[in-house]
């Protein structure tokens, strides 16, 4: 039986009556009316009113190979008929999950050879918390329980994910973080660097980790978790001195390094993983999003040999897992997604063509009177909107310029995201140069309109 068709007004009324959305102010939504996205192709979306919109965010940083790839639908269809579900508990596996684990090990850094599958980035970070504590228990160091994260980092929305992250509004709701998770400042030079040079500030921010380890007591610290480049926090690209200093500190204290690759993984920086871009040697890498290009929900944790060998050789059962860990249909889609990324050399395309082009084009926006800083790596970009470029003074009510600009963008057929007054972008990796031109030209027009309205 086919579903009855609904007008946009009917869908909005049903939505308003029944649907509680993630990260949404429902009073606000009630007055605006939800935008219903109906279909998509390549880098474009179409809403239920027929507007064509360039998706400058690849959904939520996830549609790496672009929309409308039939091969992924075919892979899902075939796998659903063959084996729609079976679990990976109790010494069972299914062919796509096994093959996907092996394929991921091939593209991961050389010392990372195992994958634990989950259903999302948040579940991956819950797994991280349990795994690092399990590791130190097995090592006979059960006091090593504390995980250090960063203020304004994002690691998901479950209780552990939100606790590992450092988003103040999330912490305010529900008494987070949970005990055993502490935070250090972020390497956000433009916003928080004060009078320091970028390099000095990078060292300062990294050394906050050493201070925190000493404060908590070395014998109590299990791990440090960070995104290579903070995504949801506002595409915060760390100064060049930051990661080398973090590496020194992590090595000195022998704590586990968790690099959250949920956004940076699967090609976004022009390398397979952000860890390769910054030459990091993580012990654990949570992944999701680009793993299936968002076509089906799936996540995982790529586990380095140090932790994997301990869990396997000294472990026993790890009492942890999800019904959908290694879901065969999601894994089949993940495999097909990886095949496309590899055979079409999409990561190479990002590194050699798309990223240099996007970065050079957005750099031109630095001359706009609203733009205080332009920054980015790979196909991640950010524009800081300020009232006064010379003094970096912001607009009085934080977020007004960003929200205004974001809404103007959508009206002009472009999805950008606003984090406060920082406009961020993360388009599909397959975006073509002509589409990058369209993206950047539209942003400039929208900046002009925003400036006009701000007066
Ligand atoms: N980690 C990072 C770095 C993310 O950006 C996100 C989501 O945006 C997550 C974890 C959580 O992933 P999910 O929304 O799939 O649970």
From TrEMBL:
Cofactor field: pyridoxal 5'-phosphate
SUPFAM superfamilies tied to this protein: PLP-dependent transferases
Signal peptide residues on this chain, from the entry's feature table: none
UniProt-listed InterPro entries: Aminotrans_3, Aminotrans_3_PPA_site, PyrdxlP-dep_Trfase, PyrdxlP-dep_Trfase_major, PyrdxlP-dep_Trfase_small
Keyword field contains Metal-binding: no
GO MF terms, alphabetically ordered: pyridoxal phosphate binding; transaminase activity
Single GO cellular component term: cytosol
Keywords noted in UniProt: Aminotransferase, Pyridoxal phosphate, Transferase
Keyword flag S-adenosyl-L-methionine: no
PANTHER family given in the database record: AMINOTRANSFERASE, AMINOTRANSFERASE CLASS-III
Sequence similarity: Belongs to the class-III pyridoxal-phosphate-dependent aminotransferase family.
Protein name as annotated: Putrescine aminotransferase
């Amino acid at each position: 039986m086919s579903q009855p068709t609904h007008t946009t007004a009917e869908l909005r009324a049903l939505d308003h009556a029944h649907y509680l959305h993630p990260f949404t102010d429902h009073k606000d939504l009630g007055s605006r009316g939800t935008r219903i996205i109906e279909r998509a192709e390549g880098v474009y979306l179409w809403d239920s009113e027929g507007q064509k919109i360039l998706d400058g965010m690849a959904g939520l940083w996830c549609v790496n190979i672009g929309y409308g790839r039939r091969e992924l639908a075919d892979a899902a269809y075939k796998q659903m008929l063959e084996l729609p579900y079976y679990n990976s508990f109790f010494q069972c596996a299914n062919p796509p999950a096994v093959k996907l684990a092996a394929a991921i090990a091939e593209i991961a850094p050389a010392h990372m050879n195992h994958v634990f599958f989950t259903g999302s980035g948040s579940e991956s970070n819950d797994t991280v918390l349990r795994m690092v504590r399990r590791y130190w228990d097995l090592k006979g160091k059960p006091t090593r329980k504390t995980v250090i994260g960063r203020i304004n980092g994002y690691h998901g929305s479950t209780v552990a994910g939100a606790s590992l992250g450092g988003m103040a509004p999330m912490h305010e709701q529900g008494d987070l973080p949970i005990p055993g998770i502490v935070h250090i400042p972020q390497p956000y030079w433009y916003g928080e660097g004060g009078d320091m040079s970028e390099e000095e500030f990078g060292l300062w921010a990294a050394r906050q980790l050493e201070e925190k380890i000493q404060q908590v007591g070395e014998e109590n610290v299990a791990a440090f978790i960070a995104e290579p480049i903070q995504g949801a926090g506002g595409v915060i690209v760390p100064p060049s001195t930051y990661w080398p200093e973090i590496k020194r500190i992590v090595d000195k204290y022998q704590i586990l390094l968790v690099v959250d690759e949920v956004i940076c993984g699967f090609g976004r920086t022009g390398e397979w993983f952000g860890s390769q871009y910054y030459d990091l040697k993580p012990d654990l890498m949570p992944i999701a999003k680009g793993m299936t290009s968002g076509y089906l929900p799936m996540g995982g944790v790529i586990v380095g040999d140090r932790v994997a060998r301990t869990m396997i050789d000294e472990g026993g059962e790890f009492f942890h897992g999800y019904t959908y860990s290694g879901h065969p249909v999601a894994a089949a889609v993940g495999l097909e997604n990886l095949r496309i990324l590899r055979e079409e050399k999409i990561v190479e395309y990002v590194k050699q063509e798309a990223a240099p082009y996007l970065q050079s084009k957005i750099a031109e926006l630095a001359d706009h009177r609203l733009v205080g800083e332009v920054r980015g790596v790979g196909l991640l970009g950010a524009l800081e909107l300020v009232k006064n470029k010379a003094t970096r003074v912001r607009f009085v009510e934080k977020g007004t310029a960003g929200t205004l600009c974001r809404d103007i963008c959508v009206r002009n057929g472009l999805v950008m995201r606003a984090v406060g007054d920082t406009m961020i972008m993360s388009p599909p990796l397959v975006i073509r140069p002509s589409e990058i031109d369209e993206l950047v030209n539209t942003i400039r027009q929208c900046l002009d309109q925003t400036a006009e309205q701000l007066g």
